[in-house]
């Protein structure tokens, strides 16, 4: 049996360590790997960029035992692990995470390239036979790769994602490797760059906000606007908000980005006041992740007090996702926002699978009916019925409605007929830069 090098064997000391090594190969096991990756994540330094987890699943070794003796599978795993050890950096962790599964953890990577290079070398390793006694064994494998922080923020999920990726690639053939489905290697590099650039882009104003009018059909003028974040990256061009909002959520930058939006809203309220438009509300999108964070209320309170937002018609847009499994804490958070006179709007209403009970229980001011209920409403009678039912329900509950994504004259006409409500969409106005938005509002007739 392989001699475990000194220092490699951490069995001495803590008795729990006994359960963290595989008996045959002496390699760290799944529990050890999870602990190790968790502690690396805890001490993770943004500059060190990435951790990769490569899960190597070896095909059908168990049947070999019937032919060559009971421990041939373990002996092969030992040979394979020695082969892998010779290919990976000294400080990489190699663990046996299942009977026929090994995992490699690479840390301190600036890009996913190193992980890809090693995955390729491992592929090559399996193209040669392994020899035990006088026998040669051709063994195939499938390798799934997951990356921290792009794929997940904890060790358990990283391992799960690598396993799922491995299973996917296994169906496609033998001796293949794949990165998690979310990122090709190329887009992965871009994501890493974006994640790194995010903090300064928020700080410097490279990420800015456009304003999309919410048009009141009864008053026939703009009664509010939604702030929509924009990022013109100097090298990569326009980055879609869905991309960078997700990255901001994953990297803990969603709080600072929202603080920026609130500061912008405060400036815009002052500009609106200067053109005599104190009747216009501003809506800021609030990510569920930020809202659930422990400093959410304190941050909002600070912004309200220091940016004089408490005297303004400020609204928060939260998605139904935030309300799934809502708890007393969520109720209290919403109540606290209400005491700060912040209006609560449910964004993308009808898409989030939340129980409608929340409409009775929670302090909700507005439903924003999602575009999917409005698209083609002038041609689809079922959609009209659904839409009307939602508008009527909101009315009965004394909740106001904003209809999102109205693009055509036909859609606008039907929304007016069945409403009338406040409408937001390209038909009325595209999202506009601050100065264009102010000019538009200044020009509206009373
Ligand atoms: P959302 O909150 O549902 O925002 C509405 C999206 O619909 C915006 O896309 C807007 O430009 C687009 N839209 C408006 N009118 C129309 C229309 O008539 N037709 C169509 N097809 N689309 C229309 P955008 O700006 O790309 O934002 C996408 C998502 O990114 C937003 O969806 C929101 O979830 C998120 N987001 C944007 N800014 C922020 C932000 O500051 N904070 C947070 N947490 N999320 C943001
Ligand atoms: Ca929104
Ligand atoms: Ca929406």
Describe the structure.
With 446 residues, this protein is α/β, with parallel strands linked by helices. Strand 13, helix 12 and strand 14 form a beta-alpha-beta unit. The protein starts with 29 loop residues before the first helix and ends with a helix. The relative contact order is 0.08. The N terminus is likely disordered. It is elongated, with a radius of gyration of 28 Å.
Summarize the model shown:
This protein is of the alpha/beta class and 446 residues long.
Which ranges are low-confidence, i.e. pLDDT below 50, for 5 or more consecutive residues? 1-16
Q: Can you count the helices?
A: 15
Mean pLDDT: 87
Q: Return the structural class.
A: alpha/beta
Topology of this protein?
Blueprint: H1 30-42, E1 50-58, H2 62-68, H3 72-85, E2 93-98, E3 101-109, H4 113-125, E4 130-132, E5 135-137, E6 141-148, H5 155-170, E7 176-179, H6 185-204, E8 207-216, E9 221-233, E10 237-239, H7 241-250, H8 254-274, E11 281-285, H9 288-291, H10 296-306, E12 314-319, H11 328-339, E13 343-349, H12 358-361, E14 366-369, H13 381-396, E15 400-404, H14 409-418, E16 422-424, H15 434-443
Helix pairs in contact: 8-10
The protein binds ligand C2E and calcium ion (2 copies).
The site of one calcium ion (CA) has 4 residues, from strand 13.
């Amino acid at each position: 049996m392989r001699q475990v090098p000194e220092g490699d064997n951490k069995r001495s000391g803590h008795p729990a360590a006994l359960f963290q090594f595989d008996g045959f190969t002496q390699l760290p096991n799944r529990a050890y790997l999870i602990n190790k990756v968790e502690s690396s994540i805890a001490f993770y330094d943004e500059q060190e960029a990435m951790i990769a987890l490569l899960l190597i699943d070896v095909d059908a070794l168990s049947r070999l035992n019937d032919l060559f003796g009971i421990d041939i599978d373990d002996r092969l795993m030992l040979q394979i692990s020695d082969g892998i050890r010779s290919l990976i950096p000294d400080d990489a962790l190699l663990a046996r995470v299942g009977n026929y599964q090994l995992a490699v953890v690479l840390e301190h990577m600036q890009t996913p390239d190193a992980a890809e290079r090693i995955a390729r070398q491992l592929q090559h390793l399996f193209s040669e036979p392994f020899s035990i006694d006088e026998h040669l064994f051709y063994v195939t494998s499938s390798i799934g790769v997951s990356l921290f922080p792009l794929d997940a923020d904890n060790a358990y999920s990283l391992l799960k994602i690598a396993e799922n990726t491995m299973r996917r690639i296994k169906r496609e053939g033998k001796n293949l490797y794949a990165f998690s489905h979310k990122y090709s290697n190329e887009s992965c590099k871009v994501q890493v760059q974006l994640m790194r650039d995010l903090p300064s882009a928020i700080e410097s104003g490279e990420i800015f906000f456009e304003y999309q009018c919410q048009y009141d059909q009864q008053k026939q003028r703009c009664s509010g606007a939604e702030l929509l974040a924009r990022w013109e990256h100097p090298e990569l061009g326009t980055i879609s908000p869905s991309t960078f909002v997700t990255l901001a959520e994953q990297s803990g930058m969603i709080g600072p980005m929202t603080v920026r939006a609130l500061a912008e809203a405060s400036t815009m309220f002052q500009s609106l006041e200067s053109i005599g438009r104190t009747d216009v509300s501003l809506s800021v999108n609030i990510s569920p992740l930020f809202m659930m964070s422990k400093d959410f209320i304190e941050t909002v309170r600070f912004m309200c007090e220091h940016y004089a937002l408490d005297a303004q018609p400020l609204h928060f847009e939260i998605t139904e996702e935030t309300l799934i499994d809502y708890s007393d804490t969520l109720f209290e958070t919403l109540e606290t926002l209400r005491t700060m006179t912040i209006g609560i709007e449910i964004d993308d209403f009808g898409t989030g699978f939340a129980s409608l009970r929340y409409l009775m229980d929670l302090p909700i001011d507005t439903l924003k009916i999602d575009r999917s209920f409005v698209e083609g409403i002038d041609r689809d009678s079922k959609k009209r019925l659904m839409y009307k039912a939602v508008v009527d329900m909101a009315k009965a509950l004394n909740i106001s409605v904003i209809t999102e994504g109205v693009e055509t004259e036909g859609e606008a006409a039907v929304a007016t007929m069945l409403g009338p409500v406040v409408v937001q969409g390209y038909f009325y106005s595209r999202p506009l830069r601050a100065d264009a938005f102010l000019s538009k509002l200044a020009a509206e007739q009373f």
